[in-house]
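Help! Submission page says 'invalid entity' but I think these are all valid:
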Amino acid sequence: MTGRLTLMWLGLATAAVMGLFALKFEVHSLEAELAALNLSIGSDVEAIHVLQAEWSFLNRPTRLQRGVEQYLDLRPVQANQVVGIGQLPARPEVVAPAKFLRIRIVE
Amino acid sequence: MSRRLGDAGSEPQLDLPEPAPRTRPGPRRPPMLGLDRRKPDPGHTRLPGNTRLMVTATLFAAAFLAIGARLTFVSLVQGEDEPRLANARQASGTEASRADILDRNGELLATTIWSASLYANPKLVIDPADAAERLSRVLPDLDRDRLAAQLAADRSFVWIRRKLTPRQQYEINRLGVPGLEFIREQRRVYPHAGLAAHVLGYTNVDNRGIAGIENSFDDILRGYPEPLRLSLDIRVQHVVHDELAAAIADFRALGGCAVVLDVDSGEIIALVSLPDFDPNAPAVAEARTRFNRATLGIYELGSIFKLFTVAMALDSGTVGLDDGYDATRPLRIARFTINDFHGKSRWLTVPEILMFSSNIGAAKMARDVGGSLQRAYLDRLGMLRRASIELPEVGAPMFPVRWREINTVTIGYGHGIAVSPLHVALAAAALVNGGILYPPTLLEQDRLAVGPGERVLKAETSDQMRNLMRLVVERGTGRKARVAGYRVGGKTGTAEKPDATGRYQSDARLSSFVAAFPIDRPRYALIVMVDEPKGNKESYGYATGGWVAAPVVARIITRMAPLVGILPVQPGRPAPKGDPLITAQLRGG
């Protein structure tokens, strides 16, 4: 009886120790994963920063103007091309054709 | 039942061994914790140390129970002071220690990126000549022999090239030369190159700002993680830069400058000074390209000042719009003769003096205003002190120490006082916005949080000045500044530049034009100044403000108005009031 109980406690202790070590290793591996993720986040953030600078560089008005002049057939907007909504002509009334047409089905 | 040994001879006895005396806990015995009750002890004697063992064991059990309970609580139940979500902290070493600079629309004007700087440890370099030869293949502008000598020296550190591009770093790494090391350094990069060079300024090798905004906000840029938003609009800046550069090339001028500002807040929308430089490489820039003509340059701007003369004359009640002056004969004061350029030689009303830019009329008007009043008005308009713009490169105006009558008269048409073009733009904004002078600023202002400004003119005077400026463009010297659909008002200025001895040269002038639009309720004021334009065939040899600067203003307004959301007015139609045009604001990035 005593032996069995002692064995049970020993077994429990061993299980606890195994569990503890398993947890510890898992935590370590998670921490390592976290550190790796943080590092890759850092390098991604840096890459994004460089790309933003590059985007701004490629979008600078001088370059866009050169591109427009070379490839597109656009011209500066003239004053007579800009109107307000109130100056647009009114939408014509669409008259339903059924008002004037009578379709008679002759059998 | 114990059997007494002494009972001999009473009855036949079995020779059984004597049973051991039994010890059984009696009811009066003190309880021995719990152990004895659970496990009746078959025969062990209780030692006094057993109690201590029990106590210690119980304490340990309690301690482990406590740890177990705490563990359960900590892992299962959320504590109050724990963050709900893990902060995404950036790994250390990737945060730039200098803030970005953005324009008012969020476009990136200046940023810091990490770049590699190459240094060598000559003690570890095996073959200096070979290393130098291989390096010069990747960095062609390195002096091969000097580099070989440096790599053969008996030192442990020598810079080879700082702030390389990623491609250069990759190539050098691929060479596989021992003794070369990279160190990460931060590098300030300006994606728009020279477009806002004078405003942004530049930094030195240690990333400290030494010119422009980089300098005046150096501590804020170094302390703040948030970017700095300027009032500049890079699209308008480009338009101004483009048109000004075209005009300077067209008229073979030395240079020029232009300022566009918001009349209701003092925000600088564009500030261009040509020739300019690339702030990505400030060391190779010549000194004259780094000179900010718009803020640091102090010039006698000439006829533009007639605007202020008329304004102060109207505001002080010296003249009314119906009054006029006799401009038939040149004005003689002391030794000087004041004459008109292409003068009308007749009586001119006050509007006509401004329309035809009459020196005689302005001089007489200034004389009527008087020196002390003129000085007071100019002071209120900010012409006698440095502009309070947030740049280190600001010039102090020059004006006479003793304000004699001759000074008053010449200042009336813009000679004898020297200010920067920014001063003129600010004062013109005060003229047209109802008479309130706002301090200039390069930072984006919250519309609702603009300060009260300083009232310098009456609102009626401002109204009159707006009409007069419109007349100058409609019928006066500023006709080339007309833009179909946008009501532009302004004033030309042509000033002869004095040479080294102080004599005015007839062939070197400063041609400028100050304008505001839409003139009935102005939103923006701008000034364009061209330094020493030379007349060309299209201008019939003329290089005055009306021929050189006014067309630039017209082209700038044509291109700029749609960008800032100002509707053109169809000719013949009234201005649409409260008639919104749906404009798509295209934001970059």
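Support: the input was valid. A stray whitespace character was the problem, and the output above is from the cleaned input. The two ends of chain B are 106 Å apart (CA to CA).
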